[in-house]
From TrEMBL:
One Pfam family cited in the UniProt record for this chain: Sigma70_r4_2
Family per similarity comment: Belongs to the sigma-70 factor family. ECF subfamily.
GO molecular function: DNA binding; sigma factor activity
Domain RNA polymerase sigma-70 region: 45-104
Keyword entries, A-Z: DNA-binding, Sigma factor, Transcription, Transcription regulation
Name of the protein in question: RNA polymerase sigma factor
Statement: the UniProt record of this protein carries the keyword Ribosomal protein: no
Limits of the RNA polymerase sigma factor 70 region 4 type domain: 133-184
PANTHER family: BLL0085 PROTEIN, BLL6612 PROTEIN-RELATED
UniProt record, GO biological process: DNA-templated transcription initiation; response to stress
Length: 438
């Protein structure tokens, strides 16, 4: 789906006191290892705790307490063999301690303490994560709040990272997350997967946040690496469960198709040193043909169900154009540009328009695309979106305007928090010095 600089970007569709302590910025070497473990284990830990304490906000507080304990102890003792179980054990002890303080009846404390003591980390983990997702996506929350809460609890992102992903100030995002957790608690939202007639109305929100989770794995908001494959795998696993839960919902199959088609390119998106390889330069023999086959089958199922114009199905159709092209030159860019036109009608967004401009540049030339991009320059939602100047710079290079392109590449580099993207943008900026002017 995404060409050149553009990543799959459901997260930006909602461009539109402080919560429990976020995972602190890593200080090498010990804290960096702790943060890496947190990114992997956060969703399962919070989900398992939420099933026990029946309060998402409380579950996150307990998980954060366990994280603080890890930061205090692991640098000296080393990372345990099963860090997830260690974190769960600490969180359970904190939960029992809290119950002892809060519950007056000793018999009740003992009963709840025994229940907590029997909870194992791997007990119903898959169901727990799904329950957490449906809870975080409850209709009592606004769409932006659902997305933010999911990225915080399932992707383990810090509040400032989520704020950057949604192009809003960090205090605004912090307040949004605090209000979301309070709203869930006040509404006594049950920690469960809805069934029957209750499932369909809530499915769209869950599909949206599953794609947000995938996006963060496909192109990380911040950090030293472009990819977080474990998040992509988790998002696809959840997508398969949702497609099975709602077999007649075309968008469930459309999203699954989109994720699997894009995940097929993961191995080729970086080289042996972790540097970015753009789509046109990727070794297509490294694309995962099994995932492509599964993605195309899921797309066929979405179309059979009448969902060919659903926003995920359209994006999957774009990804399928790339998957079916044996070489970059075989890509049907005209078809891709047309599909982006459909997508712009189905799910209007300045990011979609930016994606469409890239496709137009490949189909009709950089001059036509630059006019589309220039029309987006004053868009408030994209003011700090690094891919806007990055795309503009790429077009300026093709139009033999290197001085302007260099300035745009440098501006894009200053806006991104992903180290790999920044390095590539600065390399492209430097290369402009050797580019002849038109």
């Amino acid at each position: 789906m995404i060409t050149g600089w553009l990543r799959p970007s459901a997260r930006c569709g909602w461009v539109h006191d402080v919560p429990a302590a976020d995972p602190p910025p890593a200080d090498p070497p010990a804290n960096r290892a702790v943060e890496a473990v947190w990114r992997i284990e956060a969703a399962r830990l919070i989900a398992g705790l939420a099933r026990v304490v029946r309060d998402v906000g409380r579950a996150e507080d307990l998980a954060q307490d366990a994280l603080v304990a890890a930061l205090e102890q692991w640098p000296a003792s080393g990372i345990p063999d099963n860090p997830g179980a260690w974190l769960m054990a600490v969180a359970k002890r904190r939960a029992v301690d809290g119950l002892r303080r809060e519950v007056r009846l000793a018999s009740k404390v003992a009963e709840l303490g025994r229940d907590l003591a029997t909870v194992e980390l791997d007990l119903d983990v898959e169901d727990d994560v799904l329950r957490l997702m449906f809870t975080a996506c409850h209709p009592v929350l606004t769409p932006p709040a659902r997305a933010a809460l999911t990225l915080k609890m399932l992707a383990g992102l810090r509040t400032e990272e989520i704020a950057r992903a949604f192009l809003v100030p960090t205090p605004t995002m912090a307040q949004r997350i605090v209000r979301a957790k309070k709203t869930l608690a006040d509404a006594r939202v049950p920690f469960e997967v809805p069934t029957g007639a209750e499932l369909s109305p809530r499915l769209a929100s869950v599909l949206g946040v599953v794609y947000l989770l995938f996006n963060e794995g496909y192109s990380a908001t911040a950090g030293p690496d472009l990819l977080r494959p474990a998040l992509c795998d988790e998002a696809m696993r959840l997508g398969r469960i949702l497609a099975a839960l709602a077999p007649h919902e075309p968008e469930a199959h459309g999203l699954l198709a989109l994720m699997e088609l894009q995940a097929s390119r993961l191995r080729s998106r970086t080289d042996a040193t972790g540097e970015i390889v753009t789509l046109l330069d990727q070794d297509r023999t490294r694309w995962d043909r099994l995932l492509i086959g599964r993605g195309l089958s899921a797309l066929d199922r979405a179309v059979e169900l009448g969902g060919e114009t659903g926003k995920y199905a359209v994006q999957a159709a774009i990804a399928a154009c790339h998957a079916r092209a044996h070489t970059a030159d075989d890509t049907d860019w005209g078809r891709i540009a047309d599909l982006y036109g459909v997508l712009a009608q189905v799910a209007p967004s300045p990011v979609i328009e930016l994606n469409r401009a890239v496709a137009v540049s490949m189909a009709d030339g950089p001059a036509a695309a630059l006019a589309l991009v220039d029309a987006l320059v004053e868009t408030k939602a994209l003011a700090r979106y690094h891919l806007l100047p990055a795309v503009r710079a790429d077009l300026l290079v093709k139009l033999a305007r290197p001085d302007e392109a260099r300035a745009e590449f440098e501006r894009a580099a200053a806006l991104t928090d992903n180290n790999r993207e920044r390095d590539l943008l600065l390399t492209r900026a430097k290369a402009c010095d050797a580019t002849p002017t038109g």
